Amino acid sequence: MRRTRERFHGETGLTLLELMFAAGVMVVAFVLLFQSIVSMSDARRVTEERAVAMSHIASIMEEIADTSYERLLEYSPPEFSGLYTENFEIRCYYDDGGVVTLPVAGLEVPLPNPTEVEVVVTWRTVRGRPATASATACHWR
Questions:
Q1: Residue 105, Cβ neighbours under 10 Å: how many?
Q2: Phi then psi dihedrals of residue 135, to 5 deg
Q3: pTM of the complete model beyond 0.85
Q4: What are the residue boundaries of the structural domains of the chain, listed by start?
């Protein structure tokens, strides 16, 4: 009777263990590839949302630049669409760091000339994470 070692001695091929190891490596590679594709898609969406937010901020800044001081105090941003649960806040700053959020009915102490105006937009991304974008400019009387 021949021994088992002698029978397989000249044969080439893969053992089951080698096949399982190769399959495991392939699975890990595919998972990493899929995760990178998903993260690139998420990054693209976040970039698009940020571009929409900055477009809305630029629009508000242009409107504010053309308004008088009295109308600035009463300014309320228009309704925009394109972001999920977006919220705008317009702040004016005093020289000492005090903040006034617009619109405001009246001020006991007038804002300085020029007035630093900040527009902040907050929204929730498609995945539900909070995001914020802002811009600041000076408003001259």
A1: 6
A2: -150, 150
A3: no
A4: 16-139
